[in-house]
Every structure is written in structure tokens, then in C-alpha cells.
Amino acid sequence: MKQNIALMGAAAAVALIPFSAMAERGSSGHLNIIYWQAPSILNPYLSGGTKDVDASSLILEPLARFNEEGVMVPWLAESIPTVENGGVAEDLMSITWVLREGLLWSDGTELTASDAVFSAEYCMHPEGGCAQRRFFNDVASVEAVDDRTIRVNFEVPMPVPYGPFVTGYSPIIQAAQFADCLGPRAPECTEANFYPIGTGPFVVDDFRPNDVISLVANENYREPDRPYFATVTFKGGGDAASAGRAVMETGEMDYAWNLQLAPDVIATMARGGRGEPVAAFGTLVERIEINLTDPSPDLPADIRSTREAPHPILTDIRVREALSRAIDRDLLVEIGFGQMGLPTCNLVPAPPAFASDANDDCLVQDQDRARELLDEAGWEVGADGIRVKDGVRLVLDYQTSTNAVRQDFQALIQQWWREIGVEANLRNINASVFFGGDPGSPDTFQRFSADVEMYANNFPGTDPEQYLGAYLCGREPRPATQWQGENIPRFCDPEYDALHQQLSQTASIEERARIGRELNDILMQNYVLLPLVHRGRVSAIASTLGGTLLNTWDVELWNIADWHRTE
Fold first, then answer.
1. Half-sphere exposure of residue 517, counting CA atoms within 13 Å on the CB side?
2. Which pLDDT score is estimated for 508?
């Protein structure tokens, strides 16, 4: 579902003023963007953080994207391959893409099919720890048929073959620049990771990680009149409130991303008159991930957070279910998101065909049942109200990123858990660090040095196959993958893996939806993670900025080459 809304009386849609066809590259001058979660790297293959993927999308591009309506559109490719046009093999074992003519990297060299071959090798390297590895599920090989033709060969028939090089999460990187950055060397290539050579509308002029990026228009961009902005400042850091004020009240910034703020706060800002909020629903879910392995720092790094060391408390499904049932999701929506949030019991809340109704009992808070579950699990209430079992107190470390709404959520959930006899030690981490990809940091959400953690993410496009593939065995972050990986809870279930394999080989839309719901239900009914809120995405746009189309199906800055100044 996608919708423009009014937020407490403030118009949420910015009228698009027709832009002169005579406009030239750089004619709109300077653009100021603010992400309160500051980018720490400009290589989406080495970070699962949205802020890093979005920033990278100004420079690096895929073969195809999803537009603001969730429709796949060609980008670097001439067209979308299908069985009907011969681009997808009839046996579904390969897909063939043809690059547009005359594509150049920003350094003036030619983009060829060999760059795509290298990009696949880079992400699929067993020691590389690619954060977007799921987009290459079941890929046997990628080959350059000729300079402009790329063939992706699969190990099994793929009814939905649009994984590799589709969306800003899976772009093509330059083989020449990254040639010495394969496998374990990937995070060591600072120059390439901070200053990637791309085909996108902008080129990095200066990058200060966790602070600011300065960009200039790419003189070799394929559209001769675009981008309309000559330069961009991509400011990071601060908080969502200061970002919103910078657009809607002071006018210092043109675009502010992800205003995770209470509705009344956004409405007050909108009355400032310098900009307006825009909003859309996609598949974004705020949730609590459960660590199924022992995060103790006393364990060796190659054992900690692996299935060799199961979590001493949270491996008991009764404890995990109790934590879920203690939560009042309606109240979280009310205080955190208002009309831009819906309580949810699903990891996959949309599109409607994939949204399960089998888990809706979580919508009603039931602390009595939560207490019964803990009683059944052998946790007895101690003198201080905190439960104890075999001399161990039921204490959990609960981490998230620094953000006012998330800290409100933490405080409420801490209270509800204490009411059932669970103590939660709260910690919040700077968002640039938490969502960064530094393999040396103990504080990233991938490394998960806590018992439970809270954040939100979503999947690009309208089919959740790759997204659900994140929970396959072997996809967990670990030292051998530079602490990159998508299976954050370290969940492993052969039945889940087999069902996901079935999904990857199913063509019928109805059957895909049914299997997708079943996969979602396995995760939900095992309480691998605890969904809280199906969130709408809210950003702020200056009144003088045109061409923006809020996109919840791909990266948010997907069409930045079309952005322009309206006055």
C-alpha cells in the first residue's frame, strides 16, 4: 500500500511543478540532504544499514529498480528480461540482461558485462561477508556473453530471477577499482569503499565517515541534462528531530530522511512553512530480534554468537513467547507513529497476498499468559520480583540505536517485561555505529553483542523471497564473514531451508504467496523475532524541491537525478 497523507493538518504531498525541458546539468545549484543516521561506508555490499545503501545509490547503480509504485523498471539495462521476450530461459535456469549502449564509469572508462561478472564474484566470495548475499541465492555463475550482455545462470529453476543487480542493494561495482578487494580484503580497501567509481548521477568529492559527504555531478552521466543539481552535501548525524526542523522550520536542508518522530512533533514542524512531510507505507517493520546464541564476551570470537554456543536463556521458546505476549503493540503505535503505524505480528506485512493472519494473537497484550509461560519454563519469581532459575536471574541486555521513539519503546517494554519478572538492561548506540559495517566494532547490529535488539528494515520490490532467505542456515554474521550477514538471530531450521527452496522454484503467484506466508509463520511461531509496528516511511521535503518521488520499494533516493529546484 502506498499513500500520501496529511499529518495533523499538514499536507503530505508536494505538488510537482513542471520543470523546463531546457534545464541543463547543474542548473539547480546545490542540494542539501540530511540523514540523522550518518553513512559510514559507500559500499552497500559491506553494510546492511539503510543509510549506507541510500548514500551509495547516488554513485552506484543496478541493472533495474522498482519505482515508487513497486513496478520494476530498467536502469542500466535496456529492458526487463522476461520469458516472453526471450530474456529469461524457458527452463528458468538463466536470465540475460543487455546493457544500454555507451555507459561510462565516472572516470570515463566503459562499463562492460565483465564488471557485472566481477560484482557477482565479489559478493559471492565465501570469505567476503557480503551484506547483500541473499540477492545471489542459487546463482551458479555470471558470465559475459559479450561486452553488453550479461547472463546469470542458476543452480535451480528460478521463476523470479530478479535478484542479482536489481535495486540499489545490489549494484554493479567497477572491476578495475575493486580488483584487489576480494574476500577478506574487502573491508581493507578504504579508497574503493569510501570513493567508489560509479555510473550514478554523482561522484564523491570528499567523504568523512559518520559525518558528511560532498558530491559533484558526474560529467559522464548518461543523461546529458542530468543531474539538475551541480553539487550535493549529504550531512549525517544528529537526531530525527533536528533533521526535520532543518527542512520544515529553518530551511537549512532540502531533504530529511526517516523522521522517526511522534506525529504531533512532525505536525508542529510542518507549521514552520519551509517544507512538508511526505509518507508512504511499504514493508518496513520495527521489531525485536532475539539472539539465539550466547553473546558473552567471555567466549572466543569464533564461538560466541554461533550455534556452538546456544543462548543460556533464550533458546527456550517459552521465554521468547512470554517476551512477546507481555508487549502492548497498540500503545507503541499510539506513542510512536500514530496514523503512520500499524500493530503487526508479521515480519512480512505486505503486499497483502503475503501478509499472514495466523499470528494475530500477538495483537492483544496478555501478561497473565506470559507469566504462565515463564512458570512452565521453571523461572520462579525472586524477592526483588525478578525471576530466577538454577541460580541465574532472568536479566537481558536490550540494545537499539539512539532515537527518541526507540528509547520510549525501550522504556515501555522494559516496564512490561519487569511486570512479568524479566529485567532488561537498556543500551542505545549511535545510529551511525549501530547500522555501520565496521568488522572491528562490537556495537553493530550484525555483531549483536546483546540478548535482544530492536531496529527496523524492509525488503525492496514486492516479492519477499530474498528477504526471507536471510534466515537460512549459514547466513549468520561471524568472524569468518567479517561479521557481515543477514541472519541476525542465528536461526537455523532445515525445514525452513527446504521450504524456502520450494519458494524459489515456484512460479504460481498464489503458491508463492502461500509459501511466503508459511515461511513468515515459522519465524513468528518460533518467536525468532518479535514484530512490533508496521511503519510508514516519513521524510521531509523543502517547498522549493521538485521531482522527488518517495519510494518504499527500493532505495529512497532512487530518482535523485530528476530532483530540481522549483524556484
1. 15
2. 86
